[in-house]
Specification:
By secondary structure, this protein is mainly α. The protein is built from four helices and three strands, in the order αβββααα. It has a three-stranded antiparallel sheet with strand order 1-2-3, with helices on one face.
Length: 137
């Protein structure tokens, strides 16, 4: 069982990491003309430059080690994890951390159950120097 101070430390740590990722997603999402967050789409297969497009602008041409041929799988992956979607996922994660931070003040058993889920997401930060739990490298 984890105590309240440890849970609050996790919440503080995760909010800081999530904020860093949100800033990165916001920067990546800037439209070339500064008008807002573009929705990324794939260019049409067979075009000379297969890649990621926002409106009429090709943001990224996708090439791999297979020579001059573009890789549709890589392009689809980039579109799937576009900044708008990444930002929405991070916002949902903030809500989960807020829920954990709330419940630790009222029911430690519930908080510990939530913490097991939150720690699954937090695992990607285990190499961070401020990581508050075991497994830090």
């Amino acid at each position: 069982m984890t105590d309240q101070a440890a849970v609050h430390a996790w919440c503080d740590f995760l909010r800081a990491r999530i904020a860093e990722e949100q800033r990165a997603a916001e920067g990546a999402a800037s439209a070339p003309d500064g008008t807002g967050v573009p929705v990324w789409t794939l260019t049409e297969a067979g075009e000379p430059e297969l890649g990621v497009r926002a409106g009429d602008d090709v943001l990224l041409t996708v090439r791999t080690g297979r020579g001059p041929w573009a890789d549709l799988v890589v392009a689809e992956h980039l579109v799937r994890f576009q900044p708008r979607r990444a930002y929405a996922d991070l916002t949902a994660w903030v809500n989960l951390v807020d829920l954990l931070d709330h419940w630790v003040n009222f029911d430690l058993a519930v908080a510990n159950e939530l913490l097991t889920v939150v720690l699954l997401f937090a695992d990607r930060y285990r190499d961070h120097p401020d990581y508050p739990g075991p497994g830090q490298r």
